[in-house]
Design a protein that fits this description.
10 strands; Hypothetical Protein Pfu-838710-001; alpha+beta; elongated; 213 residues; two-stranded antiparallel sheet
């Protein structure tokens, strides 16, 4: 079976991903940029502001809000240290109570708050998050530089997590071996794989563990 050609910004089969967070990936980022195939100008540099919703009782569902839209991904499996995530739900505000009751709060794996309205605005939803003892909203700004190495979608960048600046680097593809080759080519073999959910929990102190460097 032929491998799928990865294209930045386009939907593919569920991808595996290596990502890490730390203070300095300068050498690996330099090699990634030099090894990259040409990429569309729209991914040369991207900025976004997002809100991640952390749950103290959940590490398998990753929830973020960007441009007023909610996106939840769920962990599927790990193969050779690389994680695979699938979309779980997407939604917009105002959000129907049925979606919050049947999809969103079950994904957090926390006690359900009182849901007495037919729908909830973004502000009302954030008020519920603020009031819940097991949930925390974290503001994240991303500055990302896109590349393509060994037919894997790559990026380097800097992330502000509630204002704390950390570096990140990643490679993702439907093909595990292509990611492993990219990691070897850029000097990332052996670097800890840390997803966004874990990184944000470490930076905010919800998990007592350092980043990769």
């Amino acid at each position: 079976m032929s491998k799928e050609e990865m294209k930045i910004g386009e939907i593919s089969k569920p991808r595996f991903e290596f990502r890490s967070f730390g203070q300095d990936f300068e050498k690996a980022a330099f090699r990634m940029a030099r090894l990259s195939a040409p990429v569309p100008e729209k991914v040369w540099e991207r900025h976004s502001d997002e809100i991640y919703i952390l749950s103290r009782t959940n590490d398998i569902n990753n929830t973020k809000i960007r441009d007023g839209k909610m996106d939840i991904k769920t962990y599927v499996q790990t193969v050779d240290g690389l994680e695979q995530w699938n979309p779980l739900m997407k939604g917009s505000f105002p959000m129907p109570v049925a979606v919050l009751r049947d999809e969103v709060f079950p994904a957090f794996r926390v006690d359900m708050p009182d849901l007495s309205k037919a729908e909830y605005s973004f502000e009302e939803f954030m008020d519920m998050i603020e009031a819940h003892p097991d949930l925390q909203a974290v503001r994240v700004h991303k500055q990302r530089f896109g590349y393509m190495v060994n037919n894997t979608i790559c990026e380097t960048g800097y992330v502000l997590i509630n204002g704390a600046r950390v570096a990140t680097i990643n490679s993702e593809s439907t093909e595990v071996e292509d990611i492993k080759k990219t990691m070897a080519d850029t000097g990332l073999t052996g670097v800890e794989n840390i997803n966004y959910l874990q990184a944000i929990k470490r930076v905010t102190g919800m998990i007592n563990k350092p980043l990769a460097n």
